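Reopening this ticket.

The earlier resolution said the output was attached, but the attachment link was broken on my side. Pasting everything inline this time so it's all in one place.
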Amino acid sequence: MSARPDVSVVVRAKDEADSIGRTLDLLRAQTLAERTQIIVVDSGSTDGTLEIVRSHDVELIETPSASFTFGGALNTGTAAATAPVVAALSAHAFPRSTAWLEQLLTALEDDHVAAACGDPFDFDGSPLKGPRVQNLELAQRNPFWGYSNAAGAYRRDLWERHAFREDLPGAEDKEFAWHWQQQGLVVLVDPQLCVDHDHSHDPLPDVFRRARREALGFGMYLDLEPYPLSALAREWWSDRGSWRNHLRARLSPLRATQLAGKYAGRRAARAVQDRA
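Inline output:
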């Protein structure tokens, strides 16, 4: 690519042979494809992912799996990005529209928007019917909702001033947004920016580990209230989240595993805070 791209896409991958070919094809089908830089940061794949990536016209950066963190992979990719806007995309996240990148750039046209992403649900769990601007006040009310690096975009110049924290096991995206919201910027969440990104059928041990590392990550930069077993029980009984009703939520093994992971992560975060 001779001219400076409009957007750089950083795709994080490890053992994603079943999905990464489709993801890269969808990116090459975007309306901005000719003005898009695609960077794949692979963290030790052994399943054929690398061969698939090399068969596409993209940039490949290989990093050791032992040193992987979500923030570290994104920082590595963003350092190689040459566009003013960087889109982060998981290797198993599939844009629904050929205008996805174009819509992300439109969302970032306002200089007060630090980052943008899609979400089908609002901060209170109700269906999100239109764009939602998340400022610091809204983030303080629900810091667990908002910007996601699974499929979102951010300004590279902001990243240069505050990169993703590599010490966090998860929630590096929320911490990035939180930092800039404290500086008066906002995040735009729009259901039209959603991609197909489904973890609902993952093995329960993976669900537990994901919930634990995210809860631990939140606890490493937020001053959270204690989360004893009584709080877990109240949340399990009274908060249905995105489930259709409370009964479905209470009987869901997926949700129970997520809550158990959250509890374990919050306990681990408290231990880190006590040692500090």
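Reporter confirms the inline version is readable. The CA atoms of residues 122 and 128 lie 5 Å apart. DSSP finds eleven helices and ten strands in the chain.
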